[in-house]
Design brief:
It comes from Devosia crocina. Belongs to the LDH2/MDH2 oxidoreductase family. Keywords: Oxidoreductase. It is a single chain. With 344 residues, this protein is of the alpha+beta class. The chain has a single domain, classed as Ribosomal Protein S8, Chain: A, domain 1 (2-Layer Sandwich). It has a seven-stranded mixed beta sheet, with helices on both faces. The chain has a two-stranded antiparallel sheet with strand order 1-13. Helix 1 packs antiparallel against helix 2, helix 1 runs parallel beside helix 3 and helix 2 crosses helix 4. The protein is globular and about 50 Å long. The protein starts with 6 loop residues before the first strand and ends with a helix.
């Protein structure tokens, strides 16, 4: 989503200011490095709702005690291809990137590396971790469940979180194939961004506290599942997939039981979020060379398929990489609240 009337700043300057704010908040070097890596990724590819605008929130949670400033990650191998990472209630990005590394180590031996994460916090953009695995040559899946903010299909109360599903795969040339999608119509941070910019929401993505669809970001109390009013049963079911992997398999918190990310007075109690990462080594299946040849042919066929008049087709990730190229050249747009907090 383009941020209208926003000011743009070069990546290096934003990175410096985010680093400064997290350092002031007391985040350890390892945990803040991971958080910056994930947030900058999101801001560069146009997922502004999960980009550097979250710096202020994370600093507040570090100051309040919800987030451990100096987490000591734990890793416990549970099987030939499975492990659990303990995030020690630190920034979730730190635990997630560690889980990708553990998954790669397992996959190189067992073919697959399934890694659950417990005692974690907000994950940010799930695609950042799927991408981290793909950039090293592995097919990677990452997901998390979050606090209730999305109605069920025909529901009139918050039940699931936005519960993203992210997949990435290496390709012969260029950047990886990347799919990063929320199972809600939009993420909550998109509503907050629209409030900051005082812009209307698209139709059919949010609802009032009574479950009535609304495009007013100031009246929106909950989100609608992917598919909206008519086909939201698909998004609601997919949200349950994220909960299955992230909460049920890891023994962590169910969506309705979370301390809310925003609102409320408690910013000292850890949220015990769960995440899940699955890493697959192509060498242990068809073979890396055959896989890369196949995905290369697949993408060539996809991008070369016929389109309707005035239309275009893209592979997952094509839009993101185009946005990244533009923002690396022209700068990253930031909303007014983020500009203020970062001191830009």
């Amino acid at each position: 989503m383009a941020i209208e009337n926003a000011r743009t700043f070069p990546e290096f300057l934003i990175r410096e200011q985010v680093e400064a704010r997290l350092t002031e908040a007391g985040a350890s070097e390892a945990s803040r490095t991971a958080a910056i890596r994930a947030m900058i990724h999101a801001s560069l590819v146009g997922v502004d709702s999960h980009g550097v605008r979250l710096t202020e929130h994370y600093c507040r949670m570090l100051g309040g005690g919800r987030l451990n400033k100096t987490p000591q990650l734990g890793v416990e191998k549970r099987g030939a291809g499975s492990a659990m990472v303990d995030g020690d209630h630190g920034l979730g990005h730190y635990a997630a990137y560690r889980a990708v590394d553990v998954g790669i180590e397992l996959a190189q031996e067992a073919g697959v590396g399934a890694v659950g994460i417990k005692h974690s916090s907000h994950l940010g953009a799930a695609g950042a971790y799927a991408l981290a695995g793909a950039e090293k040559g592995f097919v990677t899946f990452a997901t998390t469940n979050t606090d209730s903010m999305v109605a069920l299909f025909d529901g009139a109360q918050k039940f699931h979180g936005t519960n993203p599903l992210a997949f990435a795969a290496p390709v012969p040339e260029g950047r990886p194939w990347l799919l990063d999608m929320a199972t809600s119509s939009i993420p909550l941070n998109r509503v907050l961004l629209h409030r900051s910019l005082d812009l209307p929401l698209p139709q059919g993505v949010a609802a009032t506290a009574d479950g009535v669809p609304t495009s007013d970001p100031h009246e929106a109390d909950m989100l609608l599942p992917l598919g909206g009013v008519d086909y939201g049963y698909k998004g609601a079911a997919l949200a349950g997939v994220a909960t299955l992997f992230s909460a049920l398999l890891t023994g962590t918190t169910l969506d309705p039981d979370f301390i809310p990310m925003y609102g409320g007075g408690d910013i000292s109690t850890p949220r015990n979020m769960g995440h899940f990462v699955l890493v697959i080594d192509p060498d242990k299946f068809a073979g890396r060379e055959m896989f890369l040849q196949a995905i290369g042919r697949y993408l060539e066929s996809l991008r070369g398929s016929r389109v309707r008049e005035g239309g275009s087709v893209m592979a997952p990730g094509d839009r993101e990489w185009a946005v990244m190229e533009t923002r690396q050249t022209e700068g990253i747009p930031l909303d007014p609240d983020t500009v203020r907090f970062l001191g830009l």
